[in-house]
């Protein structure tokens, strides 16, 4: 089992094409793996064994007839529970949507179905994608497979943990301020935030419309490129969708894997390093920068002054949009309804339902957003935050006039202990310090494993950022760096950690 489970999605696709295995065999292996370890990890909220095996059998029938739909046809995948799925619950990690089964598929879900990828199930997440640790799920936290007393990042910790624990070779996540890349950094996986609008958001339960983006979670850069190309492209159902085709990513990843970065200019972001960043994280980051130089890249320091204000701007813009988006959960149309005793009014029902259905973090952000948008405060808070956003976009433009890609650590620290920051929201928000600017500007970003900390043995991530619609640059440079760094952890060592309660 371990030989197949350890293979990348690209390798599994090759094995399927060569007739060395079947989709049913692969899907059953991953379902068995989920049954064996997810009781500890809790990466999944819903598992669809019957549906996945039916989809796998259909894939095998197509291959037998020479009618494979896509290179990844038959390779299983997990889906973050913020994406709508026909026949499967979509809870967004919230009691507010407990048991809700959508009548339609998100566009990205339809695309993976149309390509023949069996869906193993829906992964755990911070409620309505609000959090950096997956501790704000109404259904309990996900644990980091590397060390079970540590967080797997958030809000998409379930997808990252599923891939890191070899419970799935591929997963879909969403990234609003780092919710794919930060979990990737702390679980040793590859996480990509595509250019805003290049992957459809139709069917993504919105947190913040101007920031949310669907993207791949994988164990290799090539796997991310394969999945990114599959889910990318124009969607007439999404008014923010770009018309530029998403192509060349796989070719860029394959080219980068040769290790030649001659002619590539890389900018080290001055404002995303130094004080406030854990020494073990900076040590691995500096090693990665040295490797880029050895691979032939021209590395220089780049200053982006407005990035220092990115988090403050983000935590005004995001709550404002969140407050607006979550207003629809009013107990009138769908979702949880709590009816108080007596003769309650519609307002009483709404108040009781939202109080019972939303967790503390969601309530906190709704209050912040409502305040920022209120009369007399709009210009002072939300309006000023949007001006900072414009400065961040301008800083990106200036930086990319000097270099091809930017580089920084992905997260200020390795995975912290479960519960360590729950009572300190600001400390929790700081985990997205390096990832937030890309969401504010709409630029693409990727986090790849930079090795493990010499201090605690946990993964460290390095982030690459590219100009809007230049996602291929991330794959070329990311694949080259990945090849130079090498794999961070195999299945056998991970299982030793899990057997020891994740404490090894």
Automatic annotation (TrEMBL):
Similarity field: Belongs to the amidase family. GatA subfamily.
Residue intervals of the Amidase domain: 25-474
Known catalytic reactions: L-glutamyl-tRNA(Gln) + L-glutamine + ATP + H2O = L-glutaminyl-tRNA(Gln) + L-glutamate + ADP + phosphate + H(+)
Primary role: Allows the formation of correctly charged Gln-tRNA(Gln) through the transamidation of misacylated Glu-tRNA(Gln) in organisms which lack glutaminyl-tRNA synthetase. The reaction takes place in the presence of glutamine and ATP through an activated gamma-phospho-Glu-tRNA(Gln).
EC number: 6.3.5.7
InterPro entries: Amidase, Amidase_CS, Amidase_dom, AS_sf, GatA
Top-level EC class as recorded in UniProt: ligase
Native source organism of the sequence: Nocardioides luteus
NCBIfam families, A to Z: gatA
Subunit structure comment from the entry: Heterotrimer of A, B and C subunits.
Name listed for the protein in its UniProt record: Glutamyl-tRNA(Gln) amidotransferase subunit A
Keyword line: ATP-binding, Ligase, Nucleotide-binding, Protein biosynthesis
Source species, domain of life: Bacteria
Entry keyword Nucleotide-binding: yes
One Pfam family of this chain: Amidase
Active site: 80 (charge relay system), 155 (charge relay system), 179 (acyl-ester intermediate)
């Amino acid at each position: 089992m371990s030989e197949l489970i350890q293979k990348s999605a690209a390798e599994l696709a090759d094995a399927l094409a060569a007739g060395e295995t079947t989709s049913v065999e692969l899907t059953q292996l991953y379902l068995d793996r989920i049954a064996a370890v997810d009781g500890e990890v809790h990466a999944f909220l819903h598992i669809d064994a019957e549906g996945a095996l039916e989809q796998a059998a259909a894939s095998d029938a197509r291959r037998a007839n020479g009618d494979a739909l896509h290179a990844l046809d038959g390779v299983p995948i997990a889906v973050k529970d913020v994406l709508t799925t026909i026949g499967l619950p979509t809870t967004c990690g919230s009691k507010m949507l407990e048991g809700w089964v959508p009548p339609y598929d998100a566009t990205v879900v339809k695309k993976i179905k149309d390509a023949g990828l069996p869906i193993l199930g829906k992964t755990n997440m911070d409620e309505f994608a609000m959090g950096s640790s997956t501790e704000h799920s109404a259904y309990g936290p996900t644990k980091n497979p590397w060390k079970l007393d540590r967080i797997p990042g958030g809000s998409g910790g379930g997808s990252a943990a599923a891939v890191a624990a070899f419970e799935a070779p591929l997963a879909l996540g969403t990234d609003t301020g780092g919710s794919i890349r930060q979990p990737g950094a702390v679980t040793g996986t590859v996480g990509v935030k595509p250019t805003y609008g290049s992957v459809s958001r139709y069917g993504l339960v919105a947190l913040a419309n101007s920031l949310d983006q669907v993207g791949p979670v994988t164990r290799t850069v090539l796997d991310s490129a394969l999945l990114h190309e599959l889910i990318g492209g124009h969607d007439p159902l999404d008014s923010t969708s770009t018309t530029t085709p998403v192509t060349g990513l796989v070719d860029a990843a394959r080219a980068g894997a040769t290790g030649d970065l001659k002619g590539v200019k890389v900018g080290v972001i001055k404002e995303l390093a130094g004080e406030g960043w854990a020494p073990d994280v900076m040590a691995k980051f500096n090693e990665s920068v040295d490797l880029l130089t050895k691979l032939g890249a021209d590395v220089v320091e780049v200053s982006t002054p407005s990035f220092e204000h990115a988090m403050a701007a983000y935590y005004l813009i995001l709550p404002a949009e969140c407050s607006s988006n979550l207003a629809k959960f009013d107990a009138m149309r769908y979702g949880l309804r709590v009816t108080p005793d007596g003769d309650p009014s519609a307002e009483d029902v709404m108040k009781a339902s939202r109080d019972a259905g939303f967790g503390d973090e969601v309530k906190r952000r709704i209050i912040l957003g409502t305040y920022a948008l209120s009369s007399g405060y709009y210009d002072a808070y939300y309006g000023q935050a949007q001006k900072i956003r414009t400065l961040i976009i301008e800083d990106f433009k200036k930086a990319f006039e000097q270099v091809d890609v930017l580089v920084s650590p992905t997260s200020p620290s390795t995975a912290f202990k479960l519960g360590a920051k729950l009572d300190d929201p600001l400390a929790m928000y700081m985990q997205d310090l390096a990832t937030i600017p890309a969401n504010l500007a709409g630029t693409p970003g990727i986090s790849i494993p930079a090795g493990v900390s010499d201090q605690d043995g946990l993964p460290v991530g390095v982030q690459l950022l590219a100009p809007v619609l230049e996602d291929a640059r991330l794959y070329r440079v990311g694949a080259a760096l990945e090849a130079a760094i090498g794999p961070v952890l195999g299945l056998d060592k991970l299982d030793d950690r899990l057997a020891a309660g994740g404490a090894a």
